[in-house]
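Below: protein 1.
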Amino acid sequence: MSTPIRLIVGLGNPGPDYETTRHNAGFWLADHLADDLRTSFALEKSFFGMVAKSRLGADNVLLLKPNTYMNRSGQAVGALARFYKLTPEQVLVLHDELDLMPGQVKLKQGGGHAGHNGLKDIQAALGSPNFWRLRIGIGHPRTLGLAQQVADFVLHPPRRDEQKEIEAVIDRCRAVVPAMLAGDFALATRQLHSGNES
């Protein structure tokens, strides 16, 4: 067993203008997980974001949606991790992933940030790349046959068929979070990746 996850961070941009955009896939999953853990988000200014708290036995489980823009996500993650004395290994970041098609998802620990500004900032704030990432596929404009620039693409809502695929992935992610909260990443990975073939 590995170190169980104690802080789950959904990445996105705050405000109604961004709510339905691809870049906010991490927020969408975080909202569902708050429901699953029977908690709700409240603004905590000292942590630069919306925080939801739940208990698992004697431990706190924290959910965070940074209130900064994507490229400053580390400010909130760093503040919360320091306050609760969490290691990078106890942090799970939920984010949109251009390199995976809608309907695909990958769980991994560590690695680079592939130009994802939210991940880059979190890595800097935690001083380590060793946090876990749930990469929610949104596709890439090129692989989806779109002429859009990436920056424009991530700030638009998915097309209806893509949205359905992303929602199915979010449900699969919800199903494996209990294993991650228990520190059983092998089980979580097996369950999660078995759906990628479809």
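Below: protein 2.
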Amino acid sequence: MPDIRVLSVASEAVPLVKTGGLADVVGALPGALADEGVALSTLLPGYPSVLKALGRARAVHTWPDLFGGPARLLAGKLGAHPLYVLDAPDLFTREGLPYADAAGRDWPDNWRRFCALGRAAADVAGGAVVVRGKAQRFDLLHAHDWQGAMAAAYTRYAPFGGAAVPSVVTVHNIAFQGRFEAAIFAETGLPSRAWHMQGVEYYGGFGMLKAGLFCADAITTVSPTYAREIRSPRFGMGLEGLIAERGSAVHGILNGIDGELWNPAHDASLAATYTARTLGRKALNTRALEAEFGLVEEDGPLFVAITRLTWQKGMDLLPEMADHLVALGARLAVLGSGDADLEAQLRAVAARHPGRVAVRIGYDEGLSHRMQAGGDAILIPSRFEPCGLTQLYGLAYGCVPVVARTGGLADTVIDANPAALAAGVATGIQFDGVDAQNVAAAIERTVALYGQKDDWQRLQKNGMKADFSWGASGRAYARLYRDLIG
């Protein structure tokens, strides 16, 4: 029997709803913690896609009025693990994206939607759900990003039935903070004492992530380097003072990946499966990817980029770098969406270099697997990267990561400098400073290394043998939970 019961609250989780890496982490945590004696239940908003996947579920709790309308708590399963869904039609039953409408505009009531999610999480963790006359209590509450962070604030300032459990808030990206006008405070249901600099007030407004970071018993980030970086103004995005003040309550725990889902040895989406011992079969995936993107077959390396097309990811440099990359005899395939101007620029680059640059706007999970398997190197020039998962997928698939030295990228990729090459431990290429000159130099290094076949294969095999499964991360979370519970 598990000795710890944890409620995890988040705005997305695979396979039910995903906009980014947060969903991968939230979906993987229950399985990662099960072997550590932790039973983790997940609470998600009742988006249409989630309710459809849940099917006929039983209601285990009701709220007559939860931020403007009735709501039910539905019970189901996330894989083999317990799942709760907040079915609040006035808040979540709408067409569009989880946080925005079909045109990409943020829902104006996002504060209300995710305050409701936080309020519900605090209630459930504190024992609101009663089954066969017995309250279903949890030992700890784990909230993710600004959308879940208010759960820690409600647990601290207005716990259900007077019961407050310890809480953890995980920062997946501190750039997204959930900041709103001060006027909403009166409608949050929080006591007046919460409106304070040492509370939910944030530069004269209402800060949802800030509230969670202040109220949580512990804060985690998704890599050790990012935990250090966000103590500085460059990376802290205005919250560096609070992070520094929390001191030893801040922990960096590296994300893992699902070694079953991301495994080229039995990935059904690939043209050919392969392992580190049968690495030659990877070329079959390269040929298939070239055909899928309409790229010419050449001897030079095939670079891939699978990313949001944003400034944070360094993608504003990609149009210029693509010209340089082609001049070096390489090719490029891009999958992503984001800034409309950047999307147009990349389409223009593809038009300039037919057969050597190809772009797919949008996201396709199966294609992302095929790109990792068919690509020789994956470009990740992020200006900041809390953890990053694409470089971990690249390592697993022998698609050599070319990364900026920041956050989780610095923690997971070993640069192919002369010493690391001589020792046989390198797994990728790192560079400092995300600007045109440094990215161009990193691409040049990659092309040169690709020409040294023995060294290149060693990079690929080292990455494929590295262990970035959830085992170590699961143990770290379980240790933190036990420390907080005492």
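The mean pLDDT is 95.
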